[in-house]
């Protein structure tokens, strides 16, 4: 059997960054980034919902005609 290597199994995530963001300026930057992320998530969710509705409204015969 193979021997296990010592050390970390992979890269640790979430340990980088955050150093330059200390203080009030960093808080503002973080808030702006969070708002952008939330907007992107909302857009993605809307796109998914639209696709689902289109698929439900078309019957399989109409779908075959489109292709």
Supply database-style keywords.
67 residues, mainly alpha, 2 helices, 61% helix, 0% strand
Topology:
Blueprint: H1 24-57, H2 60-66
What does this entry look like structurally?
It is built from two helices and no strands. The protein is 61% helix and 0% strand. The protein has a domain at 40-67. The protein has helices spanning 24-57, 60-66. With 67 residues, it is mostly helical. The longest helix is centred in the middle third of the chain and has 34 residues, at 24-57.
Tell me briefly what this model is.
Residues 38-48 have a biased composition (Basic residues). The protein has helices at 24-57, 60-66. It is mainly α and 67 residues long.
Number of helices: 2
Radius of gyration: 23 Å
Q: Mind summarizing the main beta sheet?
A: none
- What string gives the helices and strands in order? HH
Instruction: Tell me, briefly, the overall form.
Output: flat
| Distance separating the two termini | 54 Å
Helical residue percent? 55-70%
Average residue-wise pLDDT: 69
- Give the structural class: mainly alpha
**Extended strand count:** 0
Beta-strand content: under 5%
Low-confidence stretches: none
């Amino acid at each position: 059997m193979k021997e296990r290597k010592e050390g970390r199994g992979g890269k640790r995530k979430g340990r980088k960054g955050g150093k330059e963001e200390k203080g009030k300026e960093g808080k503002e930057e973080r808030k702006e980034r969070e708002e952008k992320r939330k907007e992107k998530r909302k857009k993605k969710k809307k796109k998914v919902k639209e696709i689902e509705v289109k698929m439900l409204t078309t019957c399989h015969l109409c779908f075959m005609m489109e292709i």
